[in-house]
Specification:
Layout lengths: L14 E3 L5 E3 L8 E6 L6 H19 L2 E6 L4 H10 L7 E2 L4 H6 L4 E3 L8 E3 L2 E5 L5 E6 L9 H14 L10
Parallel strand pairs: 3-4, 4-5
Antiparallel strand pairs: 1-2, 3-8, 6-7, 8-9
Length: 174
Amino acid sequence: MPQTPEAAQKAPALDIPLIIGTRWKLEDQSPKAFTQIIVYRGLHCPMCKKYLSQVRELYDDFLAKGVETIHVSMDTEDRAREAHENWGLDPIPMGYGLTEAQAADWGLYVSRAIKDAEADVFAEPAVFWVRPDGKLYLASVSNSPFARPDLAELLDKVDFIQEEDYPARGTKAA
């Protein structure tokens, strides 16, 4: 079973190529509020297309609240580029080539293909928020394409979290 990183602790490293020919490193990010990392299953996933389209609809609102977003998958560059272009996700950064080791570091569930259209191996969906100091604030990890957090609800809570200095939850040691 995957081990999700601990809330309020330093988030795992993430260094991933972008479809624009550069690299994206979590340690280099400096958002006002959070870095939002959205892991999607890949080009084959119609639920991902729908979810990432919602992210695109709310992208400017997230930015206005200090939340910078990246999409990440285990897809190849070509498949990630196709998803980005065909799903209308510009200007959100699109990472690709997430490794199984990176997926394990982030506590992601990993699946094998059950249909020809699917990649042989892919990570199941997740949403992470990382504070500017690099500490994990929110982790929503799913083993199913059908269970994902409501983006509008998350967006609505950014101001509350900032104004109330609301702490990361789930930090009680076993």
